[in-house]
Design goal:
Elements: H1 4-13, E1 35-36, E2 49-53, E3 56-60, E4 64-65, E5 72-73, E6 76-80, E7 86-91, E8 104-113, E9 116-124, E10 132-138, E11 146-153, H2 154-157, E12 166-170, E13 173-178, E14 184-189, E15 196-204, E16 209-216, E17 219-226, E18 238-244, E19 266-269, E20 278-282, E21 288-289, E22 295-303, E23 317-326, E24 329-332, E25 342-343
Antiparallel strand pairs: 1-25, 2-3, 3-6, 4-5, 6-7, 8-9, 9-10, 10-11, 12-13, 13-14, 14-15, 16-17, 17-18, 18-19, 20-22, 21-22, 22-23, 23-24
Length: 347
């Protein structure tokens, strides 16, 4: 069984005629569809994760203080019926996990697992010598989430800067992929999903963080973000991808270069250079397939016209774009965030 959000979304959303491949060289969108314009949610939803349950999509973001545009949020939850119109629901936690003395709750990854909603999250400060990854559960995608404590910290697992978790399930086994500029790694979890067990496997080099895996037409696609995430209009974040026939790799780009070499990766998305563009697009969420068979990617970015909140927080708003496929490789049109009116997903 594949990663549950992808399977679940495909079950409900993916329409495909027999023998038809999705978005190989062209995209078909009904002419009467609605429209959207980025960003689709603001002021902030950094490091997003998304899933669908019932009639709603739910998205989760890093702990942030939205200041005068919304106040402090301990892992905000927002929801939408169409990926375009979002509303704030609540904060995922009623109180901060306490298995570390200090730090922020970053980059939540939420999945429906065994009838519950499971969140893996980063617990870290900037420059933290020993950040870690925790796990929490809820009965509803709207929370509240009950913290279950640490899965591992950096010293315990032997990987520096162990943040940015991503959950994957296959053949009855549970895995966690994680890492931030010290390699991307994979480890099997115990049956409860609360601790690592067995050896860790390195999937990519030191140039990536924010791992996400998508399975499509016989390939595992490993997405990661390179560059700087949080320097306002100077941010250089961008999304790269490699693919493999095996979950354990090796992951290669289209030129055959391994993601392990620290410089490779097929470019999916980078920032706009225009004054009215977007800086630092990255840390993409799960890829969603709509009723028309189109792939959509959510990620955060900062509009160059307003890259920060009044309190100095990076204004990492939520962006949505059509993900095209050509010769088996994903990319966003022009390799940059859309800034004009676009046709919306079809549900």
């Amino acid at each position: 069984m594949l990663h549950l959000p992808v399977f679940y979304l495909s079950l409900f959303l993916n329409y495909q005629s027999p023998g038809t491949s999705l978005l190989e060289s062209k995209t078909l969108i009904p002419s009467d569809t609605a429209f959207f314009q980025n960003p689709v949610f603001e002021p902030v939803l950094a490091d997003p994760s998304v899933l669908r349950f019932g009639e709603y999509f739910y998205a989760y973001g890093t702990e942030d203080n939205w200041g005068e545009e919304g106040g402090y949020h301990l892992v905000p939850i927002i929801r939408s019926r169409d990926l375009v119109h979002w509303e704030f629901v609540r904060d995922a936690f009623e109180k901060k996990p306490n298995w570390k003395p200090k730090g922020g709750i970053w980059a939540p990854d939420v999945t429906e697992v065994d009838g519950s909603f499971v969140m893996y999250y980063s617990f870290s400060t900037w420059g933290d010598p020993n950040p870690g990854i925790g796990v929490a559960k809820a009965k509803s995608p709207e929370g509240p989430f009950e913290d279950l404590g640490s899965v591992f910290d950096s010293q315990e697992i032997g990987v520096a800067n162990s943040i940015d978790p991503f959950y994957w399930e296959e053949d009855g086994k549970k895995y966690l992929i994680w890492g931030s500029f010290h390699g991307l790694f994979l480890t099997e979890l115990n049956p409860e999903g609360t601790k690592a067990q067995g050896p860790k496997v390195q999937l990519a080099g030191n140039h990536l963080e924010a791992a996400y895996i998508h399975f499509r037409q016989g390939f595992y696609y490993l997405f990661g973000s390179a560059g700087t995430c949080c320097e306002g209009e100077k941010s250089t974040y961008r999304v790269l991808v490699g693919r493999s026939k095996s979950l354990l790799g090796p992951y290669l780009d289209s030129a055959g270069n391994p993601l392990m070499d620290g410089k490779s990766g097929e470019l999916v998305l980078h920032g706009n250079s225009q004054v009215t563009g977007v800086a630092g697009p990255g840390h993409n969420a799960e890829i969603i397939t709509d009723k028309a068979g189109n792939s959509w990617i959510l990620y955060h970015g900062m509009e160059l016209s307003k890259p920060k909140l009044a309190n100095g927080t990076n204004r990492r708003a939520l962006f949505l774009d059509l993900l095209r496929w050509k010769e088996g490789w994903p990319f966003v049109e022009k390799l940059e965030p859309s800034t004009g009116r676009r046709s919306a997903p079809v549900f």
